[in-house]
Amino acid sequence: MREAETTHISGSALIAKLRATEFGYLDDSSHVYLDHTGGGLPARSRLAAHFRRLTTFCYGNPHSENPTSSASSELIDSARCSVLRYLNADPDEYVAIFTPNATGACRLVGEAYPFAWGDRLVLTLDNHNSVNGLREYAHSRGAHMVSVPFTGHELRISDADVEAALSGGGDARKLFAYPAQSNFSGVQHSLDWVEMAHAHGCDVLLDAAAYLPTNRLDLSRIHPDFVAVSWYKVFGYPTGLGCLVARREAIGQLRRPWFSGGTVQAASAQIAWHRMADDASAFEDGTLNYLSIPDVETGLDWIRSIGIDTIHEHVAVLTECLLNGLRALQHSNGAPMVRIFGPHDGCRRGATVALHLLGPDGLAIDERVVSRDSAASNISLRAGCFCNPGAGEAAFGIPRTVLDRASRLSPDTIDEYVHSLGLPHGGAVRVSLGVSSNYSDVLAFLEFIVETYRDRPHSGESLGPRVHC
Known about the structure:
It is globular, with a radius of gyration of 23 Å. It is of the alpha/beta class. It has helices spanning about 5-20, 25-30, 45-55, 65-85, 100-110, 130, 135-140, 160-165, 195-200, 230-235, 250, 295-305, 310-330, 365-375, 390-395, 400-410, 415-420, 440-455; strands spanning about 30-35, 95-100, 120-125, 145-150, 175-180, 200-205, 225-230, 240-245, 265, 275, 340, 350-355, 380, 380-385, 430.
């Protein structure tokens, strides 16, 4: 047997063992979890490790030198080193700043980036709202926003369009922000755009929240100035914890508009003077989540024990299986049951699949109906626009003129907004796979579609208010 085959079988056996042990609660409850882009699942052994740590020693607020404070500080410093080591980031070049989530990481950059009149913020239309929100900081300081459009039906973005957007602006300061992987379509955008941007004098914010759980990110090969990370998406626990991994040179140019407890070396209450801390703590407001940050290190150790490449191969095979199954589904009249948004195969895509379920008349079934029916079948998936309006607008073919008209109407509710766009539906269904997923999950979802919707006429049925973005 060839070495590659041995590795594949070994990896498959390991993943199967993890499903039975670490994630056995899924099968114990007959639950099909298909929302890994929304949040990863915690392994049983990691929850047990957290409990053991908290019940064998006492940990306190790290802003002191007492024994419990020092114990927390040591574990936090170790977790920082573990983050950089996992990303293969040189600690002389990068620093890990703990945040509440990836959104918090983006906010740190947006509020402190030195935008000025005439500067440029370059955003791909494929971005999470946590990145789109940077435009408010840019606009407030007179900077100009440039959007990079989609190219073609697969919701990809071309290198040529990116370079055209990056090359404008002359000597103005420029920040380019984009996702390594779309949280809507699963498209994986080129990491080579980082160096392309640098060649045009742009700083780069890379949103790695959807990418990192099943892909290797090597910061010795690419050098984004800022990387936004959400740890619960990688290993499920703890929630409420992310990172801004930033180049030391890049954070040196940031200017925070305020200070707080934990971020300053000294401050005066009587005069307008303060001195910011000279390390990562200048960006970590208040008291860190010192009881959970050590779980980042144990989580990364757990990922290493499996192998991120093993996880990547596992979800890639499952995604191909899912896509093939979806494309094959038909009603009795031969009409397709599914419309996929984004790539229809596994090329340059992750394990996130957005879709519409279709009636035999070709009309989309309201995503809220699918959400209700799937929940009744003990299936967890996600329905809506997934906080990525640009991808949704492109997927549903909404032109700029219609969006302009709808915004002028100032609708009071999301349903009114959807109606003003002329859409019979307000979102899509998203299925996403992860380390705990297996073939049974994919087959259960395909069977659910056939048993619930095959030859079921579209009735215009809908349920309740739509989920906001």
